[in-house]
Amino acid sequence: MSDRKPLMAGNWKMNLNHLEAIAHVQKLAFGLADKDYEAVEVAVLPPFVDLRSVQTLVDGDKLKIKYGAQDISAHDSGAYTGEISGPMLAKLKCTYAVVGHSERRQYHDETDELCNAKVKAAFRNDLTPILCVGEGLDVRKAGNQVAHTLAQVDGGLKDVPAEQAETVVIAYEPVWAIGTGEVATPEDAQEVCGAIRGRLAELYGQEVADKVRIQYGGSVKSGNVAAIMAQPDVDGALIGGASLDADEFVKIVRFRDQ
Ligand SMILES: O=C[C@H](O)COP(=O)(O)O
């Protein structure tokens, strides 16, 4: 039995302004307050411009909800217009920084090399990277999902030492299941998440591999989360669309109640 604490993280993507963010986090706090949910870690990943509002609310009300950014610059400062650095996110007391989400890879041409630099930037600034990996539909149809995803894990973690690697979060998100309503079956999720843990064991040893939390992401909802979470190598979910509905997100967090 693993003692990995499940991580349910809501990736708001480019939704909710800073005022809406406050209302949303308040609803989450209300929905999670009356019951012991400490066995599950809850995080929100708002747009950059919301982070200060979320920080103020979480600090002020001593909420147990964690938060992080959807991206991080590979650089710590300098002439990089539009970028947000690790030191800035750390100053806002972010816990997490998402790296290499498929939408960044697809629309911003982020490579494994850049993701690797961002993973290192996160660690350099005491942030936990959530490294996103996963195959597109063509790769899945060709049956190459495991090899493709493991190559992204190798690339993202290149030269990352074991003491850092054991704290990374890896999110397996088959691109064909993101925002489409198409959910990978629990067995599909386990196949790749299990392979990711196997690769971590090859790279760092079983003890490290057993500590790493591996999330599934792609059309997760309250109705399918329990079956996905029942898989031995799935330690949480990265939730997009369903995280924008506070009641639904609370139900997902409470997957054990279902
Ligand atoms: O980061 C979250 C994933 O892209 C999943 O998004 P989705 O739950 O809307 O399919």
Indicate how many domains the architecture comprises: 1
Report strand order across the widest sheet: 1-2-3-4-5-6-7-8
Shape, principal axes of CA atoms = globular
Low confidence ranges: none
What's the SSE blueprint?
Layout: E1 7-11, H1 18-33, E2 41-45, H2 51-60, E3 66-69, H3 86-91, E4 96-99, H4 102-107, H5 112-124, E5 128-133, H6 137-141, H7 145-156, H8 162-165, E6 169-172, H9 186-204, H10 206-211, E7 213-217, H11 225-229, E8 236-239, H12 246-253
Parallel strand pairs: 1-2, 1-8, 2-3, 3-4, 4-5, 5-6, 6-7, 7-8
Glyceraldehyde-3-phosphate (G3H) is lined by residues 11, 101, 173, 178-179, 217-220, 238-242.
Give a structural overview:
Its EC number is 5.3.1.1. It comes from Streptomyces violaceusniger. Homodimer. This protein is α/β, with parallel strands linked by helices. 43% of the residues lie in helices and 14% in strands. The chain has helices at 18-33, 51-60, 86-91, 102-107, 112-124, 137-141, 145-156, 162-165, 186-204, 206-211, 225-229, 246-253; strands spanning 7-11, 41-45, 66-69, 96-99, 128-133, 169-172, 213-217, 236-239. An 8-stranded parallel barrel has the order 1-2-3-4-5-6-7-8, surrounded by 5 helices. The longest helix has 19 residues, at 186-204. The protein is globular, with a radius of gyration of 17 Å. The structure holds glyceraldehyde-3-phosphate (G3H). The site of glyceraldehyde-3-phosphate has 14 residues, from strand 8.
